[in-house]
Amino acid sequence: MTRRLRKPMVLAAALSLAATMAVAVPAMATSNGQAAGATSSVDELFPTTIALPNGFRPEGIAIGTLPFAFFGSLADGDIYRANLVTGNGRVISEGPGTPSVGMKLDDRGRLFVAGGSGGDARVVSAITGRVLASYTFATAPTFVNDVVLTPTAAWFTDSMQAVLYKVPFGPFGSLPDQSGVVTVPLTGDWVQQPGFNANGITRTPDGRALIVVQSVTATLFRVETDGVATAVTLTGGDAANGDGLLLEGSTLFVVQNQLNRVEVINLNRRGTRGDVVALLTDPRFDVPTTVASFGRRLYLPNARFSTPPTPDTVYTANAIPKP
Known about the structure:
This protein is mainly beta. The protein is 4% helix and 43% strand.
């Protein structure tokens, strides 16, 4: 499976060579309303707003090493691929009729997609859109919300159940069948609450554990691979309305959806303590949910949860400069 994907990835890399230069950051508003970011005469043409199909209802986003962003639809699970250089895109994979929520892209050109209320997940080729594998995790009540990739497994959260789902990789990153899926109960400091619980997920800076946000309690947890959770001590704020997470080095970006901002946290290496150092916002935000990175930019889709969805509702994703 891995070998079949390498040639298309090499071809895509060759075709995109001119577009893989560093992304510039046009000046735009930050949390204090001041202009921020640097510009480049070459890269400033990269669009800062990407139009998505009307009625699409985006939630998740994934970006790899090439300048392409992938978005999942809450409406029907379609996967939309957008070129970050031009802003153009198309649906590359028809959805199963259930949501596509959080997503991550690996270096083998595989897109791991959380299935929301479907209680499932699937792995999709980022080149062809073909479904490579599907997994069933749970039945209602369930909302498989987000995913993170480690060298040995894909880990999925469930906002309605106090568990994580582990899809372990075999030799050379091979995907298991359904029997290989492991359900890991959340224990320790984790107390399941009414409402939305486990949401965004990423790795700790030391790579030895996971960071999970519990939306309903505005709390971050360091979670060991056996499911034992320890609340992260934060100074300067909390993870209110926490949704998607992105870790770069020791910097954690927490999307605070209904607050229309991104919280920036400096974590210690173990991910047990953190300091809130910035709050990023932008007038274009309309309930952003998840975040991905390319060059010197963060990209966030607007889920527009406060706007009744119709087939004609306009949806976008926006780029903002990294602090």
